[in-house]
Amino acid sequence: MKxxxxxxxxxxxxxxxxxxxxxxxxxxxxxxxAMIWFFGWGVLIxxxxxxxxxxxxxxxxxxxxxxxxxxxxxxLSAVVTAVLFAISVPPTLPWWLTLLGMVFAIVLVKQLYxxxxxxxxxxxxxxxxxxxxxxxxxxxxxxxxxxLAEHHLSFLESLRIILQGAPPTGLDWDAISSATPLDEMxxxxxxxxxxxxxxxxxxxxxxxxxxxxxxxxxFLLGGVYLLWRRIITWxxxxxxxxxxxxxxxxxxxxxxxTHPFPAFHLFSGAAILGAFFIAxxxxxxCTTKKGQLVFGATIGVLVYVIRSWGGYPDAVAFAxxxxxxxxxxxxxxxxxxxxxxxxxxx
Amino acid sequence: MRKMTEMAILQRLSxxxxxxxxxxxxxxxxxxxxxxxxxxxxxxxxxxLVIPLQQHIGAPARALIGVGERVLKGQMIAEPVGFISAxxxxxxxxxxxxxxxxxVPHPSGLSALCALIETxxxxxxxxxxxxxxxxxxxxPGLIRERIRWAGVVGMGGASFPTSVKLSxxxxxxxxxxxxxxxxxxxxxxxxxxxxxxRAGHILEGVRIMHHLLGVKEVLIGIEDxxxxxxxxxxxxxxxxxxxxxxEVVAIPTLYPSGGEKQLIRILTGKEVPTNGIPAQIGIxxxxxxxxxxxxxxxxxxxxxxxxxxxxxxxxxxxxRNLEVPVGTxxxxxxxxxxxxxxxxxxxxxxxxxxxxxLKQTETPVTKSSNCVLALTAEESPSADAALACIRCxxxxxxxxxKLLPQQLYWHARSKDLDRIQDYNLxxxxxxxxxAQVCPSHIPLVQYYRxxxxxxxAREQEKRKxxxxxxxxxxxxxxxxxxxxxxxxxLRKQKAALEAKSAGDADPKQVAIEAARRRAAxxxxxxxxxxxxxxxx
Lengths: 346, 536
Known about the structure:
By secondary structure, chain A is mostly helical.
């Protein structure tokens, strides 16, 4: 159908997709700054590369689809995808993996499904999982946070690692990398160590891994900003974090020696980032309020399940993708009661 | 001193009623200060009136006049046909110069049958029926008949015949009369001014409606961005004996609180059932303008031939509230308001949220036109190209009907007309909240209107084909019956013939007959075939 006559309303529109996306980018800034602080310039270089690749991929595929490329680039969705991807991957990821990830995210996951608004899966997370499965070593080699690192990479050193795929001469991976707290926890628990013993390690801070625990807080700040500006509603983040906390709380209260306490789950890995920035991607999440609660809570539970018993240390990407598939069905069964259709009367 | 007593009255009449809220709604700049300080003023009589012969929902009225006839002000020029119908009266005296198709206020810019009257400037009244000031003693049927005669219709936009709404029937008990003074659309101030200036008159109309419906309570809902109107109505109420059952309720300003279903929800907490009418839950809702028109009809014997129209928008030089004879064209109103101060980007009939564009300025004002709105490019910027829906759900958050507009859009786009009804398309009131908040700038309301029209067309098609099928079946049955009858007749004749030939077959007669045939065959010009044709 092609609308021929301009229909009401005749007032200026109050929202714009590009402004919503811009707000998301603004909200990411505190977390990104914190990540750069703890993990060095690699984060910034990755973001720059990912954004460039994503925009180029978007332009190329739009031209191939014979559509105006500026429409897709202008909505800033590719930039958001790129930034979310770049802060989820290790700060030393070789550039060609970032390129691969962005082409996968933009061309396959987004545009081949019809582009913005039609993709069933979160492009950033799909690319992350694709790389994690295909290149597990590169995708899990994380830098140690700055207070634990033996050597602080300079900007040029970071750039060289990313461009060459190997540490510069005189440095080896052991000097700069370290297991992530989630990795450490899993590995040590598998070796039958107790939480108390594990927490003896200098890796551990007040409630999560040192350095890591604070990144979450800064993303939380951004999340609160999104809530305040009404870019997102509370339903998905709160239900997801509650789902995770309740699961962690149950197991922790049963067996505290072998199950990390709930705050650890909250402030390790991508839980906060995922709750406020990834699971809330409107295109791939549920749209009914009730559905969003189900969607968020299930992601939270899945994150706990995969972290505890799955094959990968972090689980946000998998949990989000799994629930992306379920979103339309959840929406269908959680439709609100329409005005005048029985129920709460009087 | 007087101010003190007024304060006391207002204090006493301030409503402590519990209010409910409806789902969603939006806050939009109300833009009412462009025109809400302008008192209602009469407009000079136009040289020509274009009076549509149908200005109501229901059966079209039948024209009572012919071209070349002189009509008087208030003379009925079209009479109602059927129960749900309303008459139309001449709004001034003059000569009927044509009865023809003319553009009328309609979302699709349709034309309809209109009486074109050249006014004679005398504005001479026809003989009017006597006032029914003693209506409480009269038969309610008589009062309803008067309201029907006066052609009063819902003046808030729906233009449903008021007399029908005031005859709910004996099986339904109406408890509450809701008077709609919400005026939630931006820019429009005609009801505001009417309440400020003619509060007493509105209340007279309310009293008549209260009498006819026998309701226990009357609730007058006014959005709280009109404090002067609320005050005026309360002060007028204090001067009557109606405050025992009437309450003027200030409701929070939130578009679309003036929607009938929304206002009823706010004031009573009840929901009008889907596909239903308020009378099913014991409520009748009337607009303040309609109340004033009822008072005109019953107390003055005057038909509805004029209404207050707000002419506003930043493109209008001097926005005003005008008392306009029905049939006055929009260009006349705009000219009276000093013309345009800026090039209008859009000329609308109604408010910016639900109004529609006027394709031609010669379109007349009808009983339900509350506003002529000329918007500049800044007020109504041209829509950007719509982007894809990102399923953000903002539309669902603001939908007062609690629908899922993004799903409706999805199914409207894919022309899935069954699925879109599963998502309750027909509960959509087309308020435009969803489209206003959509970040992708999708013209959502347009899609819903399109889908509704498609469904109506499809149903009509279905009815037509069912009718055709029924006709076909009837024809088949008829043919079969005729065939059977023919067969039966043949059988009977055959039997009779056999009985005859068996009964009185005389060899002599047969021989004579054969001879006669031979003779006839020899006759020149005679057709053998004809003679050989068996007669039956």
